[in-house]
Amino acid sequence: MSDSLPAIAEPGARGDSAAPAPLSGGTLALGTVALSLATFMNVLDTSIANVSIPAMSGDLGVSLSQGTWVITSFGVANAISVPLTGWLTLRFGPVRLFVASVLLFVMASWLCGLSPSIEWLIMFRVLQGAVAGPMVPLSQTLLLASYPRSRSGTALAMWSMTTLIAPVIGPLLGGWITDNIAWPWIFYINIPVGLFAATLTWAIYRRRDAAPRKLPVDVVGLSLLIIWVGALQIMLDKGKELDWFASGTIVTLAVLAVVALAFFLVWELTEAHPVVDLSLFRGRNFSAGVVSLALAYALFFGNLVILPLWLQEYLGYTATHAGMAMAPVGVLAMVVTPIVGRKLGQWDARVLATLSFVVFALVLWMRSLFDTQADFFSIVIPTIIQGVAVALFFVPLMAIVLSGLRPERIAAASGLSNFFRILAGSFGTSISTTVWDQRASLHHAHLAEAVARDSFATTEAFAKLEGAGLSPLQALAAIERMASQQAYTLAANDLFYGSALLFIVLAGFIWLTRPLPAHR
User: Fold this and answer.
1) Fewer beta carbons below 10 Å: N end or C end of the chain?
2) 180 pLDDT exceeds 70?
C-alpha cells in the first residue's frame, strides 16, 4: 500500500508533498496511545450520557424530554464543528489545533460535571461538542503521519478500533458510573485522560507541526453551515417526539435546513477561501467512498440503537446486562483489525469492504430470527460475529476515501468524511426508531384483531390468567403487555431483515470506486 495514503505535510511545507519522517519504536507506541485515548474519550462521550439522562433530569428537576437536550446540544455543536477541521488546521496547524481541542474538551467536561442547572449543563455541552469537532479527524491525520506509508493500514486499524468500540462501551460505562457513583463523573473521567493525552501529544508532535497560515474567515459560509446543520440535527433529534411532519416545528426546521443548505452549496463552491472544501467531491474515490461509509454507518448505528432498546424494554434486561450483550463485538474486532491493517497493502480494499457488508448482512439476518424466548447466548453469538464486520469496516473504507489526496488535504478530507458519518448516524437513529415504532403499531393491530374474546385461544388465555389470581382487568393488561412485546419483537425482526438486504445492495455500490494504486 505504498502509495495509497499520503501523510500530512511537513512543517512549513504546505505547498509540497514532503512529509516528516515517520515515528518509530517507543515514540510511535506512545504517540499512538495518546491519539487513540483522545479519540476514544471523544467518541465515548457521544453515547455515555444516554443512559444517565433519567438521573440527570431527576437531580436537576426537569423532565426527560428536557433532559434529552443534553445529548442533542452536544450532537448539534459537534456536527457543525467537524467539517471546519480542514480550514482550522490550515489556520492554526494540526498539532496546535488538536492539543487545544483536547484541553478545551477537558475544561468543558469539568464544567459539565459542575453544572447547577439544566441550562448551564446544556450550554457547557454545546461548548464541549464544538471544541470536540477537530479531535477525531485530526487524530486520524496525525496517526497517518506517524506511520510509514507501508503501515498506513495499521494506523487506520488502530484509529478504527477506538471509534467503533467506544459507542458500545459508552452505555455500559455510563450506566455503571450513574448507578454506583454519580452522573457528573461521566464527565469528570475525561479530565485525567484528556490531560494525559494532550501532554503526551504535545511532547511528541510539537516539532512536527505545520506553520499556521493567515486565512480570511468565511463568515457567510460558516453562518450558513451553522443554520442548516443545526436545523437538520434538531429536526432529526426531535422528529419522533413531535410526530415528524405533522408538527409545524419540524416542517419549519426542514424548510430552513434545505434553503440554508442550497445557499451554502452555492456560496462554498464559488468562495475563494471556503470554510468547507467541497471540491473534494470531484474525486471519484472520495465521493463514492464517503457515500458508502455514510450509508453503512447509518445502518450500523441505527441497529446499534434498536437492539439494546429491545433488550431492555421487551426482554427485561437491565442497562448493564444490555451492555454486556453488546460488548462482545469488540472481541473479534480487536483480533482481526490489526491483521486487516497489516494486510491492506496486499488485499484490495474494495474486497474487504464488500466482505464487511456481507458479514453485517449475515449478522442482521441472524437477529431477524430472534423471538421473545431468545436466550443470552443466542443474542451474543451474532454480536461476536459482528466483530469481524466491524474490523473490516473502517480501515478499507477510509483507505478508499483518502486515497490519491495530497498531504495538505488529508485533514479536510478526514473532517468532511467524519462529518457525513456523524450526520448519517443521526439519520440512522431517527429512521430506525421511527420505522420500529411504525412496524410495531402495524403488528400490534394485527395481533389485536386475532385476540377476539370469543376465540378459543383468547378464552383459554384469560382462564389461565384469572386462575392465577388476576382480575379480568389485570388479565387484559397482561395480554396487552404480551401483544406489545410480540409486536415490537416482530418489528425489530423486520428492521434487521430490511437492513440486511440494504447491506447486500451497498456491497455492490462500493465497486463504483477505483482500486487503490497497489491493486491497479
Assistant:
1) C
2) yes
Q: Which of 394, 178, 389 shows the shortest CA–CA distance to 303?
A: 389
Q: Which residue, among 167, 174, 168, has the nearest Cα to 189 in the 3D structure?
A: 174
Q: Checking phi first, is residue 244 left (phi over 0); if not, alpha (psi -120 to 50) or beta?
A: left
pLDDT of residue 103: 95
CA proximity to 71, closest of 430, 437, 421, 319: 430
200 in the same domain as 69: yes
State pTM to two decimals: 0.77
362 shares a domain with 231: no
- Where do we find the cell 491483521? 339
117 with 203, same domain: the answer is yes
231 with 373, same domain: the answer is: no
Cell numbers standing for residue 453: 374474546
Closest CA to 288 of 353, 345, 344: 353
**Domain total for the chain?**
3
Q: Which helix (H) or strand (E) holds 245?
A: none
Is residue 485 within 8 Å of residue 314, measured between CB atoms?
yes
Contact 141, 8 (CB under 8 A): yes
Q: What is the pLDDT at residue 252?
A: 93
Q: CA dihedral defined by 519, 513, 167, 376, rounded to 10 degrees?
A: -80
C-alpha 117, offset from chain centre: 28
Identity (one letter) of the amino acid at 294?
A
| Domain containing residue 17: CATH number | 1.20.1250.20
As a whole number of angstroms, the longest Cα–Cα distance in the chain is: 83
What length does the chain have?
520
Residue 425 sits in the same domain as residue 336: yes
Residue ranges making up the domain that contains 78:
8-217
| pLDDT at residue 471 greater than cutoff 60 | yes
Same domain, 268 and 316: no
Q: Residue 511 domain-assigned?
A: yes
**Do 370 and 488 fall into the same domain?**
yes
Q: How far is Cα 184 from Cα 177, in angstroms, rounded to an integer?
A: 9
